[in-house]
Amino acid sequence: MHVDLSNRTAIVTGASSGIGRGIALALADAGARVVVADLEETPPSDADRTTAERVDDLGGTAAFVECDVTDDDAVAALVDATVERFGGLDILVNNAGISHAGTVEETTPEEWHRVLDVNLTGVYHGARHAMPYLKESDAPRIVNVASQLAFVAQPEKPAYLASKGGVVSLTRSLAVDYADVPVLVNAVCPGVVETELTRDSLADPERRAEFERQTLLPYLGQPEDVGAMAAFLASDHARFVTGQSFVVDGGYTAQ
Questions:
Q1: Residue 200 pLDDT more than 90?
Q2: pTM
Q3: d(CA 15, CA 35)
Q4: Which listed residue (124, 133, 160, 178) is catalytic?
Q5: Distance (Å, whole) CA 38 – CA 117
Q6: Cα separation of 70 and 96, whole Å?
C-alpha cells in the first residue's frame, strides 16, 4: 500500500520537534506540501536541521509559520498564510501540546487553563479557521493528536488527561458535524514516544525499563510511528474512516 499525498497541502502544529516533526516529515515523504507551525523554528536539540529544511532534504515543499495555537487570531493568520501561499488547504494536523505534573490540589488555575488552552482550545481554533477551506478540498482531512492517556489514567496528570479526553470527544463531534461534506476527522493517540522531551527520563535505565514494561512490544515508539498513522489517515486509503481514535502505544492499553 502506497500512501500518496501529492498535490495536497497540510498544516501541522507543534511541528518543530518531536511527534509533530515526525508527522510533518511523514506527510512530506508522501508528497504533501507542509506548513510547519510552531512557536519557533529552531531544530530539536538532537538535530542540526529544522523541520522545513528536512522536508527540503526529502525533495518536498515546506514553509514555516510562527503560531501560538492558544491565540485565535494567530491561528486564523496561519490558515490564511497557508492558503495564500499554496492556494488551498487539504489536511490539518492539530498536534501542539504541553503537559503538567501535579494533583488537582497542586495545580494552579493558571497551570490548568494553560494545558487546556494549548491541548484542547488549540484544536478548536485550528478546526474553526481551517474548516471553510477544508470544505473546498477534494479530500479534506483533520488529524488530531490526543494520547493513550485519553483512555487510561496515570498519577498526577489531571489537566493533561482532561485535555486529551476532550480532544477525543471533539474529534467525534467534528466528524459528525461535517460528515455531509465529508471532512474526515480522526485522532491519533500516542503512547511513550522517544523524543527530545522524553530523552532525559529515558536516559535513566530504571525509568526506561519501567516505560518498556508498560508496552507489549520490546521497544518504545518513535515519532515516525505516529507519523505513519497520521499519513494513512490523511490519505485516500482512509476514505471510510472518520470519528475514530487510533492508539499507537505498543499495546499498552491492550493490557
A1: no
A2: 0.97
A3: 9
A4: 160
A5: 15
A6: 10
